[in-house]
TrEMBL record:
Its EC number is 3.4.21.107. Residues 107-121 have a biased composition (Basic and acidic residues). CDD domains: cpPDZ1_DegP-like (cd10839). This is Probable periplasmic serine endoprotease DegP-like. The keyword tRNA-binding does not apply. GO terms for molecular function: serine-type endopeptidase activity. Belongs to the peptidase S1C family.
């Protein structure tokens, strides 16, 4: 991850280390000045109840109570037992089995003279167990749950805790590390309350509601607005995050962000935080991406993406001037993989891909996302800028190699 960005999974250790006393004073800003008198702090509660004046129109602050009542039962806390295999022993020296017996005593791990006593543990990779916590939400009545890939990575056991306190055993149906999404399924099935993914893209400034399990405090609700769209935080090739200012912390990973209709507009995934806690900048995977990935994981357990087989870089203003483009757009081909799909279509190093199927490519990131949406084997066309003019090339989309 880029420095300053943090995934929002939490562990049991982080809960013990972090307090919960930091939340108290955030709401004291409105009406504060009106309550200071005679050296004492007094809050005028009438200041909180006054409607906001906007061009002569009285507007009450929104209440999310009805939305919370509707969607909260579909949000779950995700508890994960993980296991990884260490590359070396606990003391970091690794296995001595590949050394001649006469040399092993010079690499003793117990610090004692005499021959080393090799046991079944010493010198062999040992499994390491851990615990992680995150959030998730039901997207179907029969028990499919969406969360983040980094929440369930290396999972050997997954449990879901519902809003009413029930614990459900779940399995991992599939994961997609490139978008950091995962799909779970309740093992015993059942009839669960679920939420829908929003079909419309939110606008900057829209009210949103985040529900999740920050620091292990399940069922936590926070509110804010959509702050920005299309954020690239350096986490992967398809970064297209919504930025929200609803407080999101460790443990919110995989939880939903809702619009005012109770539809999921994004999956909370990362925060920008020098301190490790919320500073009002959080990032959510848009619902359009979530829907595409979930459908693929439910069908195949993995995501098959289109592949072009080129190394690309941005087209700067200087590059555009050098190659004769009127504006900085498209993706400059740094190299084309030998015998790859692009090379077979005639793409060369130094070409600038400016359109796919006649639709203009904004930049290198836009090209990556467009190609990824095609199913392998799809016939399409590329428009490249070469020697001061555009050329049309027929193109068959390849299959992206595994991550």
């Amino acid at each position: 991850m880029t420095e300053g960005f943090a995934m929002t999974t939490t562990t049991s250790r982080s809960i013990l280390k972090r307090g919960v006393l930091i939340a108290g004073a955030a709401t004291l800003g409105i009406g504060l000045a009106a309550g200071i008198a005679d050296g004492a702090l007094k809050l005028d509660h009438r200041a909180f109840a006054q409607p906001i004046q906007l061009s002569g129109v009285q507007t009450q602050l929104p209440s999310f109570a009805d939305i919370v009542e509707k969607v909260k039962p579909a949000v779950v806390s995700v508890r994960v037992k993980t296991q990884t295999v260490a590359a070396t022993d606990e003391d970091g020296q690794g296995s001595l089995d590949d050394l001649p017996p006469g040399l092993r005593r010079f690499f003793r791990q117990d610090g004692q003279d005499g021959p080393r006593q090799d046991g079944p543990r010493q010198g062999r990779p040992q499994p390491r167990q851990g615990m992680a916590q995150g959030s998730g939400f039901f997207v179907s009545q029969d028990g499919y749950v969406v969360t983040n890939n980094h929440v369930v990575e290396n999972a050997v056991e997954v449990q879901l805790v519902t809003d009413d306190g029930k614990t459900l055993e779940a399995k991992v149906v599939g994961t997609d590390p490139r978008t950091d999404l995962a799909l779970l399924k309740v093992k015993d099935g059942g009839n669960f309350q679920y939420v829908q993914l929003a079909s419309a893209k939110p606008r900057i400034g829209d009210w949103v509601l985040a529900v999740g399990n920050p620091f292990g405090l399940g069922g936590t609700v926070t509110a804010g607005i959509v702050s920005a769209q299309g954020r690239d935080i350096g986490s992967g090739p398809y970064d297209d995050y919504l930025q929200i200012d609803a407080p999101v912390n460790r443990g919110n990973s995989g939880g939903p962000t809702f619009n005012q209709q109770g539809q999921v507009i994004g999956v909370n995934t990362a925060i920008f935080s020098p301190s490790g806690g919320s500073v009002g900048i959080a990032f959510a995977i848009p619902s359009a991406t979530v829907e595409q990935v979930v459908d693929a994981l439910k069908k195949d357990g993995s995501v098959a993406r289109g592949f072009i087989g080129v190394q690309i870089q941005p087209v700067t203003s200087e590059v555009a001037d050098a190659i004769g483009l009127k504006e900085a757009r498209g993706a400059l081909v740094a190299s084309a993989e030998q015998n790859g799909p692009a090379a077979k279509a005639g793409v060369r190093r130094g070409d600038t891909i400016v359109a796919v199927n006649g639709e203009q490519v904004k930049d290198a990131r836009d090209l990556s996302r467009r190609i990824a949406k095609f199913a392998p084997g799809t016939k399409t066309s590329l428009t490249v800028w070469r020697d001061g003019k555009e050329r049309q090339l027929s193109f068959e989309v390849g299959r992206q190699p595994a991550a």
